[in-house]
Amino acid sequence: MKVELPYGKGMVHADVPAKNLVGIYSPKDVRPVADVKKEVIRALDNAIGSRPLRELVRGAGKVVIVADDNTRMTPTDKIIPVLLDEMNAAGVKDAQITVIIALGTHRFMTQSEIVEKFGADVVNRVAVKNHDYKNPAELIDLGTTPNGTHITVNREAYEADFKIGVGSIVPHHIPGYAGGAKIVQPGICGEQTTAETHLLSVKAERSLLGVTDNPVREEVNAIARRVGLNTILNTVLNRNGEVIRAFFGDVVEAFNEGVELSRKVYATEIPEEADIVLSSSHPCDIEFWQAHKTLYPSDLAVKAGGIIIVVTPCPEGVAMTHRDILDVTHHDACGLRGMVSCGQLHDEVAAALAIAWAQVKERESVYIVSDGIGPEDAGKLGFTHFNAVQDALDAALRIKGDRARVTVLTHAPDMLPVIARKEGK
């Protein structure tokens, strides 16, 4: 069977013998709303665990909207104008409102990227700023959470009278699902805060992908509460990045309601674990710092000792803001944890992801097909590089044999594979 996989703005193909194919799986192709503006207004009129936005924001002197960057598909260009209009109706002028881009530890967005992501209307109406996680002058220290995480956060956001988070809810390997309070941590926090929550996530033997109740989500929620995030507007998207529903209200309650729908869209029942999982990194294609999200759904879909084939363009290479990560990715998870505990690694955010990658590599082999990551960097990552998808698949079939079972994940980073037989036990 000819299999098509998204690859950047195009497609790549591979022929999978029909007798070997378990199936080709994608997030559900749910019909989007006809009008995003009307859906956002509907959500604002039906606040979850909260008063309406107009009531919440009335009288605020300074407002900050914390919003996803261009590594996420949230249609901020359609959402934020509605929020601005609502705030204007409550007496808050555009001059009082700032959008802070929740970069976490990602690179700054360029001005052209900002206009593309947020729209000319938003950029012309309000200030839109990159969050600078490395600049101490732009951060404020809020002490620690009850669990001991040291909180530093964007000062301007913290000091605002009202703050709202804008993002989308999808399965995520660190807090279970992206969305909700994650817009604050790691979105607008300092590097050490992000390192501590990321390191917390890799205390588990496998990723927390799709796990709703977990220590990281509890910590992220606690940080957002301490920072004073007043409310959220989150969307659930279909596999094409189109809005199927919006959720507005309390940071935790509105998020939890959105998670229920997100699971229905992204959870995919698969009849058996495969020997080989062939996965596209779409839509997380920019660099491996995003494309690595392909690993965790693939890990859930493959047998221990199997082979994961990651198909990803990565035009910006491995990691624009964590370039030293390739110096440590040859270590195993235990060694990396030891280096962290001894203070040997200055970039603990990168260390946490290196541990997560090591945990996958210790269970399965990883092949990578990428124009942006060559054989040398692939080798440093502990992966085997191939120039073409068919070459990688043929090599995997030679190792796993004529009866090897192959599963294909077309949008792996946003998927939550559920093995049917395991679910039934």
Task: Spell out the blueprint of helices and strands.
Blueprint: E1 2-7, E2 10-15, E3 21-25, H1 36-45, H2 53-57, E4 63-67, H3 76-89, E5 97-101, H4 111-125, E6 127-130, E7 139-144, E8 150-154, H5 155-159, E9 162-168, E10 171-172, E11 176-177, H6 191-201, H7 215-227, E12 231-237, E13 243-249, H8 253-266, E14 267-270, E15 274-280, H9 288-291, H10 295-301, E16 302-311, H11 333-341, H12 348-361, E17 365-369, H13 375-381, E18 384-386, H14 389-400, E19 406-409, E20 416-419, H15 420-424
Parallel strand pairs: 3-19, 4-5, 4-9, 5-6, 9-12, 14-20, 15-16, 15-19, 16-17, 17-18
Antiparallel strand pairs: 1-2, 7-8, 10-11, 12-13
Helix pairs in contact: 3-4, 6-7, 6-12, 11-12
CATH superfamily placement of the largest domain: LarA, N-terminal domain
Sequence of strands across the biggest β-sheet? 3-19-15-16-17-18
Tally of individual helices: 15
The total domain count is 2
**Uncertain stretches of 5 or more adjacent residues:** none
